[in-house]
Design goal:
By secondary structure, the protein is α/β, with parallel strands linked by helices. Among the domains are: 59 residues, Alpha-Beta Complex (Oligo-1,6-glucosidase, domain 2); 65 residues, no CATH class; 82 residues, Sandwich (Immunoglobulin-like), CATH 2.60.40. Helix content is 28%, strand content 18%. It has 17 helices and 22 strands. Strand 12, helix 9 and strand 13 form a beta-alpha-beta unit. Helix 7 packs across helix 8 and helix 12 packs parallel to helix 16. The longest helix is centred in the middle third of the chain and has 15 residues. The chain is globular and about 75 Å long. It comes from Aeromonas popoffii. This is Alpha-glucosidase.
């Protein structure tokens, strides 16, 4: 381990806020049009001002980038496009000096076919063939799999006369976690990065590492929780590390297992039910009632029994304000503040995806501008779909929306790079950028700063229970949280009311605001009245 690496102390799960960085699109420091590690170092002052505790970096390992780094070719090596291992160690140290930890992305379900293990497997080494899910034709015929990215999930290898499983791109071969050697390799990878001073790990599609062949289930297999507990004990367990598992198929029972307070598995999970993407995400629309019901179920079901993650966007999702709010210029910022308040005042660990704190939006995509393999494959497979509808779907849901460069200023390349970026900029960076918002006290950026500070200051936000109000109302989100101080006996109540529409609405629970209540936060100036303005959201604190 580098003796010069400065280590941050263990980070409190209940008070921390995590900021996700997509390194390719965050900050370019060397003028090649792609973000890098030194670019992140350059922006640590910005992240310190925002007030976040952990920086989750999507994969920066050596990779052919067929799936933008989620096709790992070497878990121990930094991809030269991002920098060097020494620069990564310096980032860990520089961030720690500011009280910020680094969270690595662990892609444990699959590797690139360029990984040494797979190369050796193709060369005929039986040890490494056992690292992957290789099967003969009879098995493949009996177990047809469709790749998440489209097409057949089995890839034929002529020289072996066998097929390997790829639940994603054909260049991403699934590992066989039923092999103890694979599980030991993953524990070694985590321990390698722990020794570098890493304070957190996010586990990509971890619910897929145990397969159930009898029912062709690629997630939530019979040994899933056994494998996670084993990994915990062999690597990060008991070390004060923040961990989160990406679990698209987790129900409440699985979420309770993953985030058991005894620390046997993960700190928390990403559950995506509240996003309303459904089985066919491309044709999905946001449903406020489904969102409210899912969040209420998770908040209630995990209170005291597990821990929730709180998020609206990430590198795989559309921009939050475009999905949930109203990204038209006249409403973009006020509706983005509303959704920030709705999420950040719940119980759990908030995740902020880069640019979310600025209200960055989706954009309109031309076919030759697409970079995401999923979007490119989807477009190619939809020849019978009306072109206008296809364009609408790509604009609304495509993952490239989240990957446009971070909008630092109004300059020609938004302060991201001195060269043409690897993916197109959003033209609205002239109006939506960090420089403008940092200079304006009432901006969305400063709203996020306020929400982060409120979480750290008020135990009711961290520990209080949650009761959803207006449960069957698609036009409002309202909830009440309560917590009693075990030392003083004081009772603290937080009340959040939000109008989801672009018209004024009477708020039925406004009369619950007690005399002497503290107005914690509002996205409109002045004292709130019972009739809320369009997209108005307000939170109060009451203590008895």
């Amino acid at each position: 381990m580098n003796p010069h690496i400065l280590h941050t102390p263990a980070i409190d799960l209940d008070s921390c806020v995590i900021y996700q960085i997509y390194p390719m699109s965050f900050q370019d420091s060397n003028g090649d049009g792609m973000g890098d590690i030194n670019g992140i170092r350059q922006r640590l002052g910005y992240l310190t001002q925002l007030g976040v505790d952990l920086l989750w970096l999507t994969p920066i390992y050596r990779s052919p980038k067929r799936d933008n780094g989620y096709d790992v070719a070497d878990y121990h090596t930094i991809d030269p496009a991002f920098g060097t291992l020494a620069e990564m160690e310096q980032l860990i140290s520089d961030a720690a000096a500011r009280g910020i930890g680094i969270m690595m992305d662990i892609v444990a379900n699959h590797t690139s076919i360029e990984h040494e293990w797979f190369v050796r497997a193709l060369a005929g080494d039986p040890r490494y063939q056992a690292y992957y899910v290789f099967r003969d034709k009879a098995f493949v015929d009996a177990h047809p799999i469709t790749s998440i990215f489209g097409g057949n999930g089995w890839q034929y290898v002529p020289q072996l006369d066998r097929y390997y499983l790829h639940n994603f791109d054909a260049s991403q071969a699934d590992l066989d976690w039923d092999n103890p050697a694979v599980r030991a390799e993953m524990a070694e990878v985590i321990n390698f990065w722990l020794a570098k001073g890493i304070k957190g790990f996010r586990f990509d599609v971890i619910d897929m590492v145990s397969k159930e062949w009898s029912r062709l289930a690629m997630s939530n297999g019979p040994r899933l929780h056994d494998y996670i507990r084993e990994l915990n004990q062999a690597s990060f367990g008991g070390k004060g590390i923040i961990t989160v598992g990406e679990t698209w198929g987790a129900d409440l029972a699985h979420m309770q297992h993953y985030s058991n307070p005894n620390g046997s598995e993960f700190s928390m999970v990403f559950n995506f039910e509240h996003l309303g993407l459904g089985r066919d995400k491309w044709s999905s629309h946001f449903d406020p009632l489904a969102f409210k019901r899912a969040m209420a179920r998770h908040q209630t079901g995990l209170h005291g029994l597990g821990w929730n993650s709180l998020f609206l966007g990430n590198h795989d999702l559309p921009r939050a304000v475009s999905r949930f709010g109203d990204d038209r210029p006249e409403w973009r910022e006020v509706s983005a503040k509303l959704w920030a308040m709705v999420i950040h005042l719940m119980q759990g660990t908030p995740f902020i995806y880069q640019g979310e704190e600025l209200g960055m939006t989706n954009r309109h995509w031309q076919a030759d501008e697409l970079r995401d393999v999923e979007a490119i494959n989807y477009r190619a497979s939809q020849s019978e779909l009306d072109p206008a509808e296809l364009g609408r779907r790509l604009d609304a849901i495509g993952r490239d929306n989240a990957r446009t460069p971070m909008q630092w200023d109004s300059g020609p390349r938004a302060g991201f790079s001195t060269a043409a970026p690897w993916i197109v900029l959003n033209d609205n960076h002239v109006a939506i950028n960090a420089a403008e918002q940092r200079a304006r006290p009432d901006s969305l950026f400063h709203c996020y700063r306020q929400l982060i500070a409120l979480r750290k200051a008020h135990p009711v936000i961290r520990h209080g229970d949650v009761a959803l109000l207006d449960e069957e109302d698609p036009e409002r989100i309202s909830y009440r949280r309560r917590w009693q101080d075990p030392i003083t006996g004081a009772r603290h109540t937080l009340l959040l009311l939000a109008n989801l529409t672009e018209r004024p609405l009477v708020m039925p629970h406004f009369d619950q605001v007690e005399k002497g209540a503290t107005l914690l936060i509002s996205n409109y100036p002045g004292e709130p009245a019972a009739t809320f303005a369009p997209y108005q959201a307000t939170g109060w604190l009451m203590t008895t």
